[in-house]
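Side project, low priority. Logging it here so it doesn't get lost.
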Amino acid sequence: MPKVQMPQLGESVAEGTIGKWLKKPGDHVAKYEPIVEVITDKVNAEVPSPYEGTLTEILVQEGETVPNNTEIAVIEGADEGPEATAQSASPRGAAEPEAPKATETPAPTADEGRQAGFGPAGSDERPTEESGADRTPTPPATVATAEKRVEQPADPSGGNGAAAVDGYEGRMTPAVRRLAREHAIDLAVVQGTGHGGRVTRDDVLKFVEQQRAGGGAPAVPAAQAAAAQPSASPRASAPAASAAAPTPAPAQEDSLKPASPMRKAIAAQMTRALAVPVAYTVVEVDMSGVVAQRDAVKRDYQAREGITLSFDAFVAKATVEALRRNPDFNAHYTDEGHWLRHKVNLGVAVAVDDGLVVPVIHDADRLSIHGLNRAIRDLAERARGGRLKLDDIQGGTFTLDNTGWTGSLITAPIINAPEVGILTMETISRRPVVVETRAGDALAIKPMMYMCLGFDHRATDGAQAGRFIADVKRWLEAVDSSTAVW
């Protein structure tokens, strides 16, 4: 009987959280019809069903976090093709790791000239067949981050959590097992709120907070304690959670804002990303030509297209043109080497409630300034409306981060591993600069913008980074009235 598995929703994303089931047991499901909303650090995505049939069982409840490829639902009456047979034959959570998928560093955008919420992007590259002698080789599917390559030992639940942690014998996810071991917690003393009394990740985190606040452990129902703590287990009566040093109780006016699943995923990914040895280089760009050209066409553009022409689109165009000239930056870095990507897929970021998502503009180098402007706008609107598709968050090869909407002058961005570069655009401000005239040097007031390039020093060096960002600067400073927008 075909099983639906937790998909991988981004490079380096190893797990997902069930946000909301869109179907319930007994409902008929059409092939490719959305059945569940999954939350990661990159996106809240609706996952389509790979089969047609009747949803007979939900294996992972809302709020639970499970690794990629974990079976999350059962569909009856679907076509039993080779693909379905292969998936149903695989033990839960034991599928082969896929090629890495990236993540992103966030930063929104919003003012008259910038699309609100635009910034960094996360990404991954799906292997695709390319014709021609210059086809770039695709990395083997076994390339993955260190976190993804750590496999849990086989256990009665097929990798979905039956291995005991101290006295607890119930089912749990690998993430819950790992969290319990990190905090030295005996799960037998933790009250489970998941399906069938299962202990979830949030249950463990709540237990840890209660211990740190000096409170006692929540009462565990007798039935759960008896099932999870058999008398034969010599360790069952040792509540190891007390090993965590208690912290002073919070003041009465203090309050805890629980981390959302997206916030937790962002925190985990950013921590992993900081392990990349990133170096930085900064340039100052004269935006006079861009400002003048945008001012000259923005009224006609808005009347014709119905949307504002943003500065983001000009910078995006300069970036993709520079990526074509400097292919080492349109790449992913892995332990096997520096994978140059054939397609230029530019990632952007969109601010949403309590987080950011990082959709991708595929084949961005084939688009005009207008095409990039419309793509940025479309992705931003669909991201805020929760209407992004899986393809919208996959395949990124480089990140463009707009932090200038906040008024920032220089930002040191966190790289979207395994990408090798991330470029920020800062605020455009008018300031005095020295210009050359026939009579000699003079002061002029010009709209200036700093740009910061963060690059993976394992994959490239300062000289190459300098050439790349110089190409971006040169393109922007060459914009004039002859620059085509459409």
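Brief comment: Residues 80-117, 119-163, 222-244 have pLDDT under 50 and may be disordered.
Revisit when time allows.
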